[in-house]
Hints:
Layout: E1 5-6, H1 16-24, H2 44-61, E2 67-72, H3 75-87, E3 93-98, H4 101-110, E4 115-121, E5 145-148, E6 150-151, E7 156-157, E8 169-172, E9 189-193, E10 204-209, H5 226-231, H6 241-257, H7 259-279, E11 284-285, E12 297-302, H8 308-317, E13 320-321, E14 332-335, H9 342-359
Helix pairs in contact: 1-6, 2-6, 3-4, 6-7, 7-9
Bound molecules: 4'-deoxy-4'-aminopyridoxal-5'-phosphate (PMP).
Amino acid sequence: MSRVYNFSAGPAALPEPVLRQAAAEMLDWHGTGMSVMEMSHRGAAFMSIHAEAIALLRELLDVPSDYHVLFLQGGAIAENAIVPMNMLRGRDRADYIDTGEWSRRSIEEARKYATIRVAASSADTGYTTIPPRETWDLDPGAAYVHLCANETIGGVEYHFTPDVGDVPLVADVSSNILSRPLDVRRYGLLYGGAQKNIGPAGLTIVIVRRDLVGQAHPLTPSAFDYGLQAEADSMLNTPPTYAIYIAGLVFRWIREQGGLKAMEARNRAKAELLYGALEASSFYRCPVARDCRSWMNVPFKLADPSLDARFLQEAEAAGLVQLKGHRVVGGMRASIYNAMPLEGVQALVDHLRAFEKRWG
Ligand code: PMP
């Protein structure tokens, strides 16, 4: 068996010890004689897995007691509709910050439900920046302010939490949750799909302040009503049981590594190593402004795009896979989530240098 360094943007690499434990427990979880996949979600065994995963996530992110942690389904694209359904709370408008492909998708979907104002946009820089907070034109009557904390495709990330006054701040954290500590209290709602930093696709994490739930639009499907799901402990419908089990193992792995402070140190080192290598050469170029470069998704281009296919081919031969950039922006993209070890990034940097030597 050989494992590659997988730079996929998601579904993405998982920590190897987690996969090994899942493999060892596949046929018989803790003497139950069955796989987690085969368990009733209401049985004692799965209930303990579910409760532990929620408790670990609360511990890692230091989620205050006045927030619900919900394990739902539908992914972040479904949340683009579910968020306005739950968060408008009788109001007719919300503010969105436009920083690239994923925030644009959120805006388009939300427009089905309310008047959406783009309070700030980085379209004028080709989505290579985050608009500075002082340029945001916020509406104090907005039901909420929405942003995408890390644009997985464009590779721009907020390295600050904006102050938006009393209006609840809503963030899509699909691609940077658990990459470093975050002050949950600054947000009304955090949501994200699990398939980047947490576990398999199919699980959606929602962390929402308690006072914001219970006023969903009457046509909100029950399974997507945060208040009803909170009352049912996220079990109003059958939850994605296996994904929750793996997420729990990943949470435990993060805790064993030293928690989010340790993840932050590791992710900072990985990002510095890779961006440093890109900066050091005119053969490669990162289009994103320095102060908002993502620690998780690193887009870069070759000065000569006719070498792109060869770059990918040689990378793959070196065991470095899934480096092709998203079709919207082209070029390359290295996603270096929590599960990507520093050695993987070093192997990529070695490849960058060797390839430049051969073809530069
Ligand atoms: N938001 C962000 C920031 C993402 O990276 C993605 C997936 N790449 C999505 C939303 C959409 O997620 P999903 O396809 O799981 O609904």
